[in-house]
Amino acid sequence: MTKHVPLTINGVEVRAPEGTTILTAAQDAGIYIPTLCHCPDVSSQGVCRLCLVKIEKRRRLEPSCRTLVEEGMVVVTDDAEIEQLRQVILELILSDHDFNCLLCPKSGNCRLQELVTHIDYNERRFNRFEHVAKELPIDTSNPFFNFNPNKCIHCTICVRTCNEISGTHAIDMAHRGYDLKVSTFANKPLKESVCVSCGECVERCPVGALTPKKVEHPTREVKTTCTHCGVGCGLYLGIRGGAIIRARGDRENPVNQGNLCVRGRYGHEFVDCHERLSFPLVRAYDEYAQASSIVDEVTEKGKPVTAPLVKREGKFVEITWDQAIKYVASTLSHYKGDQFSAISSAKCTNEENYLFQKFVRVVMGTNNIDHCARL
Amino acid sequence: MKKPAPRESSKSFKIDSPESLQLFKKSIVAGESATGKEVVICCGSGCMSSGSEHVREAFVSESKQQGLEDEVTIKRSGCRGLCVRGPIVVVDPDDIFYQYVTKEDVPEIISETLLENRVVEKLLDEDPATGKKYLHEDDIPFYKKQKRVVLKNCGRIDPTSIEDYIKVDGFQAVAKVVSRMTPEEVIEDIKLSGLRGRGGAGFPTGIKWETAGNAPGEEKYIICNGDEGDPGAFMDRSVMEGDPFSVLEGMMIAGYAVGASRGIIYVRAEYPLAVHHLSTAIAQCADLGLLGRDVMGSGFDFEIKIVKGAGAFVCGEETALIASVEGRSGQPRPKPPFPAIQGLWGKPTIINNVETLVNVSRIMLNGAEWYSKIGTETNKGTKIFSLVGTVRNVGLVEVEMGTTLREIIYDVGGGIPGGKRFKAVQTGGPSGGCIPEELLDLPVEYETLANVGSIMGSGGMLVMDESTCIVNIARYFLDFAQHESCGQCVPCRLGTKQMFKILKDITKGEGNPQDINTLFYLAEAVKAGSICGLGMTVPNPVLSTIKYFRDEYREHIHEKRCRALVCRSLISYHIKEYKCKACLKCLQACPVDAIIGAKWQVHEIDQTKCVKCGTCMEVCPSRFSAVECVSGQVIED
Ligand SMILES: Cc1cc2nc3c(=O)[nH]c(=O)nc-3n(C[C@H](O)[C@H](O)[C@H](O)COP(=O)(O)O)c2cc1C
Ligand code: SF4
Ligand code: SF4
Ligand code: SF4
Ligand code: SF4
Ligand code: FES
Description:
The structure holds 2 protein chains of 2 kinds.
Chain A: E1 4-9, E2 12-17, H1 22-28, E3 52-55, E4 62-63, E5 74-76, H2 80-95, H3 111-118, H4 123-128, E6 145-147, H5 157-166, E7 171-174, E8 181-184, H6 200-204, E9 210-212, E10 220-225, E11 234-240, E12 243-249, H7 262-266, E13 281-283, H8 289-297, E14 299-300, E15 303-304, E16 316-318, H9 321-332, E17 342-344, H10 350-363, E18 369-371
Chain B: H1 7-10, H2 18-30, E1 38-42, H3 45-49, H4 52-65, E2 73-77, E3 89-92, E4 96-98, H5 106-116, E5 125-126, E6 133-134, H6 141-144, H7 162-167, H8 172-180, H9 183-193, H10 205-214, E7 221-226, H11 235-242, H12 244-258, E8 262-268, H13 272-288, E9 303-309, H14 318-325, E10 349-353, H15 354-366, H16 368-372, E11 382-389, E12 395-400, H17 405-412, E13 422-427, E14 434-436, H18 446-451, E15 460-465, H19 470-484, H20 490-507, H21 515-528, H22 533-537, H23 540-548, H24 550-559, E16 571-575, H25 585-589, E17 595-598, E18 601-605, H26 615-619, E19 627-631
Parallel strand pairs in B: 1-2, 7-8, 7-10, 8-9, 11-15
Antiparallel strand pairs in B: 1-3, 3-4, 5-6, 11-12, 13-14, 13-15, 16-19, 17-18
């Protein structure tokens, strides 16, 4: 069992498990500390400096997001000096921000907007600051999301996410001083980088710098499992007007703990695609006489297929599942051993894949089995 | 024999015990030229830039011509400190100090001094007041108040010759340490000596070593911090260029004390001569077996590599330096964990400044007690400063800790030239504070400087006279800061930028009455809200100038006046009608044709055209002195 250590935050005695940060301990005790570069899913960097707190017997203010609790610590999270510092920091961030909230996809869900309501900044000083319109080019190369560096607050959450959650290391902070920016290797557009478009960084960007191309707000969400592969990530599909408009990972799901890959997160358009198959289809063409008897039974839009098959060469015809299975089974019965090979699909579950290779080896009598994930 | 122990012979010879070091030293002394005639030409970066290499070539060819090449040794040395008087040449055995030597002077030096033992008077240093000439370095006031402990060999030995170094007791300290002391005893000695890190913060070196020594782990590293990014600073550079072996010796001692077998010297790539001398020194040491496996038969292994830095100021900060060595971008990380526990590649690492490590060599050679007698109660030893700005003797000075600023600037530095008044001195590089005249009697110590809002830093010392605008100086340093901030911390990245902008506005006459207040809050936020020492100190120039020179800020803001006549937007040039003799000089010289006038017609400056370059003032003959520069005052004319 983890040890709980006693400490005092703003005069309140609290106990927090060893190894937690002051920030977490304070939040658990219902004490608000403003943060911007903190993200509970990744390591702390402590660069926004908004969460600085006073700790008795320490010379300097310490970032609560990366300072661990210690027994007997006496912490003050807010006083005139800290407030003053936070005001200046907020004013500085705003002075460097293209805050055109009305046109910003993040508006309403933005951590910076939220902070402005918490920290009472000094308007006169803020107005004295130089506001430069950076007008850096927006990277729209990625098919699913945009990166607008003019809105970036350099919190590095995206970089830490890409390193620690995605494991892709596609982005890092480049340059120094005022030129510091989030960049891919050699500053290439995201699409030309090693980015796998998992969107984890987009999910965590506190402001409108990394935003999905499609920003619509769902009216309701449906909890389900991703159909794209055998991992079976849990997700919530956001619905609006009867259509799926976005997906987000289910944090409670033990399989993916909220994370998704590019397909799970952005690949849901197929559901409503007019090209999507909703019946088994068979190519109405078969050179084997044996098959034709089955196909003869096949119905096209409910009617039996009677016309000569050759004329339908290359066309697909709808059949029922029973007919399809029958058709496949009778076709397969003509082959044996190395005459046959099979490729299985990553869209199937592990169990299905297992069964399929078993079938190929035992029933078909060959080891010619492979899987699309290897291609 | 001209050269002592030529390099080739040492190829097979290995110094594998303290005894063989003594033998080697004896053989060098025995091989010296009998006359002792030696010409030592300073080839530090300062003298080199004023042409010392040509002087050296002239000596070589001229001595050949006069048939002296076997009698006289001609050698290069590192910086002697008095860079402003370069090229400097010292003629031994009589130790005659010649300054401003040109290649035209060489034949005379050879025929007079070397052949006839006569002094070439015109090349000697002369007291401007009394006309007294100084023959030897030690007589020159510049050197008199100095105490050369670290710079002991600089300017005396040939930095590319290990024999030269061994002759002046080189490697005796290492020999003593590895053969007769335990690592704990070495650490104890360093603690006793009271040595504090010369890289800026003044952290007790012994305690740092003890921490790393006690840290668990087989693999440990010694890093010598030779990044020296402060503009105008060249202490570490001169030491690395002029006495590289002492640096290596200090690192070996540190390695032995904490149990490290690998050392890294981090030098900025802009110091090619330092890199060259250090790598030559490392190769020579390895050649003689002084670096590598089993140093002097003690079982202690040590190797040293050089890593070149790309020139970011912040990479001098120890955690950023480690990041840079590891191949990451140079961003500091919060401490703890300190590098002594978790440094390079996560292993215990000692990072020490160049000067600190040279001090280590001296302490282990002469004893901790000897060292602890130098300096003050809490600040032991000496400190090197690079004395620059408006001071007569621009150069490298080494003084005992506790020497006052006044002594350094006036006695060693020779005071302010040109009859100007002293205004301020900035210590500690770009993050230091500006100290006013009333505090000149401050003894130089880590704490005293911090108390007045400045820092020791790595030892920059910039003297400013009354022609310096204090607001402009603060602007200059903030410009440096905003470019050198690594950019992680919001206050440092954006705060320095806004401070720079406000200071720039003030110098342009666009300041407003609240600006001093705004600057103050910004400065305090950057100081309190930064991860590393850069952010914590870069507001110093602003805070200290607001504290000591508030009036000048006020003048700029309220009266639109720059008393030093520096801020271009606040000054204007005028021609005094009653003094102008219509000589056409200024009219012809003005680059933008802003001067109206003709022969027999008093000239006038068209203020709308004038770009305030000051050319007219420079060319107006001094007997007329008709052009004046004013700021913030009404012109009657
Ligand atoms: C911004 C910054 C720049 C620094 N630059 C240097 C430097 O150029 N050389 C140096 O020796 N130390 C520099 N330091 C200090 C180092 O971080 C470190 O404290 C020092 O190298 C430790 O050596 P010492 O204990 O021998 O002083 C710098 C510190 C900061 C914060
Ligand atoms: S990122 Fe936030 S603060 Fe910035 S414009 Fe968008 S909504 Fe506004
Ligand atoms: S989308 Fe995924 S891979 Fe691409 S940058 Fe973001 S976290 Fe990295
Ligand atoms: S893009 Fe977003 S997450 Fe990344 S650093 Fe900028 S603000 Fe932070
Ligand atoms: S204080 Fe400045 S230089 Fe230091 S880590 Fe922060 S941003 Fe970088
Ligand atoms: S949240 Fe702690 S420093 Fe940003």
